[in-house]
Amino acid sequence: MISPKFRRLTFAFFMSLFMSFIMSMVITFINLGLVDGFILKWMEAFIKAFIFAFPIVFIVAPIVHNITDKLIIKE
């Protein structure tokens, strides 16, 4: 398994992987419809999206956690 010290990196990797995978499919479908070669175009979009999504999630996730912690009422 993965060491706890890599938690943030692991979270960013999987969050960006799933989000870019799903969103690239949705946007490709919206823009092109179900055309011949759809999967190839989707995978190209996914790779490009993931390249940007991973560092963005790695940087932004802690900021979002801090904002969320400030907005949630402590019980």
Folded structure, characterized:
- The chain is mostly helical and 75 residues long.
- It is built from 2 helices and no strands.
- Helix 1 (7-32) crosses helix 2.
List keywords for this structure.
mainly alpha; 0% strand; 75 residues; single chain
Quote the beta fraction: under 5%
Instruction: Give the CA-based shape.
Output: elongated
Radius of gyration: 16 Å
Number of helices: 2
Main β-sheet, in a few words? none
Structural class: mainly alpha
Number of self-contained structural domains: 1
Question: What are the secondary-structure elements, in order, as H or E?
Answer: HH
Overall helicity: over 70%
Which spans have pLDDT < 50 for at least 5 consecutive residues? none
**Between the first and last Cα atoms, what is the distance in angstroms?**
33 Å
Quick recap of the structure?
The protein is an all-alpha fold and 75 residues long. It has two helices and no strands.
Secondary-structure map:
Blueprint: H1 7-32, H2 38-71
Helix pairs in contact: 1-2
